[in-house]
Amino acid sequence: MDGQAAAPGAGTVLNALATGVGSAFAIDIETRATVSLSSDVESIDGEIAEDLTADTRLIEACVRAVVDRFGDGEGGTVRTDSDVPMAAGLKSSSAAANATILATCDALSVSVGSTGELTHTEACLLGVNAARDVGVTITGAFDDASASMLGGVTVTDNTEDELRARETVDWDVLVWTPPERAYSADADVDRCQNIAPTARLVEELALDGRYKDAMNVNGLAFSAALGFPTEPTVDAMAHVDGVSLSGTGPSIVAVGDESELAHLKSQWDEQDGTVIETTTRTMGAHIL
Ligand SMILES: Nc1ncnc2c1ncn2[C@@H]1O[C@H](COP(=O)(O)OP(=O)(O)O)[C@@H](O)[C@H]1O
Ligand SMILES: O=C(O)C1=C[C@@H](OP(=O)(O)O)[C@@H](O)[C@H](O)C1
């Protein structure tokens, strides 16, 4: 019983660490998961292609969640390979969880969709709860996971696992990922909560559809709260419509039209780390 699926990474409009309300948009870089199940095996063993020493508990928990609900005690293997850098603020955990949940559904022939045995939102929540169980998230990150599963931009209340808005957008996107890594679970949540009034303002802008303005405010506020320099965001504001620290960093995402982003790219290319030119993505996670 084999299954395969893919899910996109995402960038941040509003970080949920201050109030529990967050917003993110899917981008066109993705993670693929391959699941192989057998009734002769009990254990579930994960492997991450890019880093054989990385923590595989999230993807193993995702397989277990689907087997517990729809299977009959099967075990097996799960392997991810990914273009989304890990722990860089680009939602690698949500993409890995969503791809794994759908790949396991594929392996067990569970139909996913509005008329299926599981809706995409329910499938997404299996991954969110697996992420909570293994401790790789603070709020559950339903904002990031819903953007990755459904595509487009979403606004969610992670304290209630409630989807408050979803819209499709069509932006060019530039991503700069400095070399360091920042695990969400290590983020300074107390400092983020200090800026809750600003986060509520970002929430209003996002629910008004003013996503780029929301990103600009989010970027300045959360860079300061999480101890990242604000200079790259302020410098980028001269060239693009919207720019923000993504998640708990260190990546910065900028959105605008192609010519605006080209100017910014020439500046970011001078810095250490990697620069990715991509676009927003309307298609979310899907079985391959
Ligand atoms: N490609 C992947 N395959 C399997 N698990 C992954 C993958 N990427 C991330 N994870 C899991 O997510 C954790 C990182 O989560 P997090 O710090 O929230 O990063 P991000 O901000 O990129 O989502 C990793 O320790 C790992 O457990
Ligand atoms: O763990 C969490 O609850 C969250 C982590 C952050 O994202 P990253 O995982 O990209 O750092 C943040 O943007 C999100 O709103 C909530």
Automatic annotation (TrEMBL):
Top class in the EC scheme: transferase
Reactions performed catalytically: shikimate + ATP = 3-phosphoshikimate + ADP + H(+)
Residues covered by the GHMP kinase N-terminal domain: 58-152
Compartments where found: Cytoplasm
Flavoprotein as UniProt keyword: no
Family: Belongs to the GHMP kinase family. Archaeal shikimate kinase subfamily.
The protein's name: Shikimate kinase
Lineage, highest ranks first: Archaea, Methanobacteriati, Methanobacteriota, Stenosarchaea group, Halobacteria
